[in-house]
Amino acid sequence: MATNPFEMLKQLQGLQSRVGEIQEKLKNVHVTGSAGGGMVTVEMNGQMQVEKVTIAPEAVDPRDVPMLQDLVLAAITDALARLKEKIRDEVSQATGMLGLPPGMLGF
User: Fold this and answer.
1) What is the reported pTM?
2) CA separation for the pair 31, 48 (Å, rounded)
3) In sequence order, which residues have a C-beta less than 8 Å from that of residue 90 and are 6 or more positions away?
4) How far is the C-alpha of 95 from the C-alpha of 83, rounded, in Å?
């Protein structure tokens, strides 16, 4: 089955337009990651910037700083995973509309 290069170019141009739309949409996306049953939460925006870190007072034990560090790291990791999932959903919708197979762009 022969592939029409002009059709592929048209699809790629459409994808480029959709990527711009997705980037704009992601500016309004916010996710919250948590760890320790909500003792540490991290809020992140769609541009992968941490906007807020909240630590419950009971999570602060001066004798166990490494535990608090682990909770902060876990909350950031959780927020990133949630954000990646939202990005994957947006990209999947965009590529699906263009008739591109899922995963073609590595998402």
Assistant:
1) 0.71
2) 10
3) 22, 25, 26
4) 18
**Residues spanned by the domain of 61:** 31-97
Alpha helix positions (H), 1-107: 5-26, 65-97
Spans of the chain below 50 pLDDT: none
pLDDT at site 83:
94
Tokens standing for residue 88: 């994957």
- The sign one gets for the Cα dihedral 67, 70, 71, 72 is positive
Contact between 98 and 7 (Cβ < 8 Å): no
How far is 59 from 77, CA to CA, in rounded Å?
18
Task: Establish if 79 belongs to a structural domain.
Answer: yes
Question: Tell me, what CATH number does 73's domain have?
Answer: 3.30.1310.10
Residues 40 and 22: their CA atoms lie apart, in Å, by: 29
